[in-house]
Amino acid sequence: MYTSQSRCVGRVILGAFSKTPLKCESMPLTRIPTFRLSPVLTSVTFFSTGRLPQMLKVYETSSLQMRRLSLSSRLSSGLMPKVAKVVPSLSQAQLSALRFKTRKNKKRNQPGKDEWSVVGYSTAESFDMLGLQEGLNEQLIYSELDILEELNGNCIAVTNKYNSDKDDLSKEIFFFKDGNIIFWNVPELERSSVLKFTNRFALQSYEEDLIYEESELMNFSFSSALTKPTLEKGLIMLNPHLETFLLDKYTFSDAIASSVKLGAWEAALDNIIDSIEHISEDLKNNGNVRISSREVLQKSGEILALRHVINLSSDLLDTPDFYWDREGLENLFLATCSHLAVAKRTKIVNEKLNHCLELMELVSTHLSTDHGARLEWIIIVLIFIEICFEVLHLVERKFGGFTVLGGESDSEH
Where are the domains of the chain? Predict the structure, then answer.
């Protein structure tokens, strides 16, 4: 004899298999089971003890057995579709990604105790230095520092006018003509504001993702016992009491600026390599290329322009003239460039550019040969047509002509 609770549990179980839930008025609210609506009851919890959990467990076991029997009968009768064995395969793009090494992310060392950060960005191809100088003066936030008259027009150095605390270290920012900005002890929020401010003075600005991705971070500290600045294991050591303190900061900033500018050019070269990567694949697989002579000429122009900027318009291959009569600053500049692997990276970029140019020359030669062969076939066809006409004229002169259709000769008779 079933009680009202068992009848209510039966209605609840049936409701689990139906789309509309069933309610039970006879069971108290504190004794209603909670469960997840699914074809098989996977989780049932009661707030009271008794025989109801055992009944539900028996029902769950029988339901699972019935489903297993039904599945086995369908498999034996062949009603279930056979699933083909999936063979994992890699697409061409995935294979290409495995072959070529991706660029490693730069290691970011956060400043430790009694250390501060110096961060460099390359934001554009160049800056309007006069407009930038006027804009900084209008801001009334930074005051310009006098470095050397020789650097006027190539670099602007500014420092903050106001400090929130007397013990706070001053902030310096170096703006270079070739679109680089170096921040000394400037927090991230202020750096972002300055980068947005310089957008209106930038010529050929870079994308924001590229600016932050190719940034360079180093740490610096102070020591009054130093007789000259040094670079020890990536840490810049300065003596603020030296007369060349500002020039020392400029030298470090110049080296970091060269590194971030080279990083931007490396990214541009990667884009060129990605755009011509399919050419070598087409030559290997099909023996043909899907590119026009105009596109080849355009890509060759991009490669040559980048090569010109790196090797001729910049000082990556040589020490800047500013350091020729300043041996101490020159050694400092070369040491920083060596730490940032500027010379090694420049050599690798030039080797990649040479390889890209060789590929473009190969494709250009192939297209020229193909075009010449096509012209030769056109000339051969024209000569054949001319020979056919000459044969017809010869037949006409020797036999007095011939009729193409027999209707005309019949009409004359």
Answer: 4-75, 116-366
